[in-house]
Design a protein that fits this description.
Elements (H helix, E strand, L loop, with lengths): L8 E3 L7 H6 L4 E4 L17 H10 L3 E5 L4 H11 L3 E2 L8 H10 L6 E5 L2 H10 L3 E5 L9 H4 L2 H8 L43
Parallel strand pairs: 1-6, 2-3, 2-5, 3-4, 5-6
């Protein structure tokens, strides 16, 4: 179980995931969390440098899709700033909508990473979906809702003792995607599972 909560790679910011580094890691598609990953929870604008980072990756052929547990209206308005496809109300850590995003966008699972700031949502969902999971340091987590902040304590316990020279090294021994029987979870109605791309840019 602990391995499901362990990211393959830890970075301080998405800005460390340069085009050259992603190519070195064999990645050409990213599923991106939004709140505390690309921006502060309390603001609509991305952190300095993130807009240029998104554009640089797209020019370099990296395919991007936002995957957030936030509501469609708020995440859609954010995605529109960058003309990015998105999935809202993703129900992470359940992997179903992430695997749907990979399939609908035509991403290769073995060359796709889930990038986010929460172990019990982003990392776990990425692992369950059989993707590379990349954990970033959360941006201003004190601004999150109380129910999100509750998970930060257990996250620190999971990360304790995993530091290797100040940073977690990459570990690309990917898990085989876990095949769950249809009865394992009661899924939302089909109308809530609709993929919500804003454009065909990717």
């Amino acid at each position: 179980m602990l391995k499901l909560l362990t990211p393959h790679l830890r970075v301080e910011s998405v800005l460390e995931l340069t085009l050259d580094r992603l190519r070195e890691l064999g990645l050409d598609s990213l599923l991106l969390d939004v709140d505390c990953t690309l921006k502060r929870y309390s603001q609509n604008d991305v952190e300095p440098g993130v807009a240029d980072w998104i554009e640089e990756l797209r020019r370099g052929g990296i395919k991007l899709c936002l995957v957030s547990n936030g509501l469609a209206g708020r995440i859609g308005r954010f995605a529109q700033q960058f003309d990015l496809p998105f999935i809202a109300r993703a129900c992470k850590p359940l992997p179903f909508r992430m695997t749907a995003a990979v399939r609908k966008m035509g991403f290769r699972p073995d060359r796709t990473a889930m990038v986010g700031d929460q172990i019990f949502a982003d990392v776990l969902a990425g692992r369950l979906a059989g993707l590379v999971s990349i954990l970033v340091r959360p941006i201003r987590p004190e601004e999150e809702p109380w129910y999100a902040r509750l998970k930060r304590g257990p996250e620190r316990l999971v990360l304790r003792g995993k530091e290797e020279g100040g940073r977690r090294k990459a570990d690309f021994r990917l898990l085989t995607p876990i095949r769950l029987p249809p009865s394992a979870f009661r899924l939302p109605p089909p109308s809530l599972l609709t993929f919500q791309p804003l454009s065909g840019r990717i």
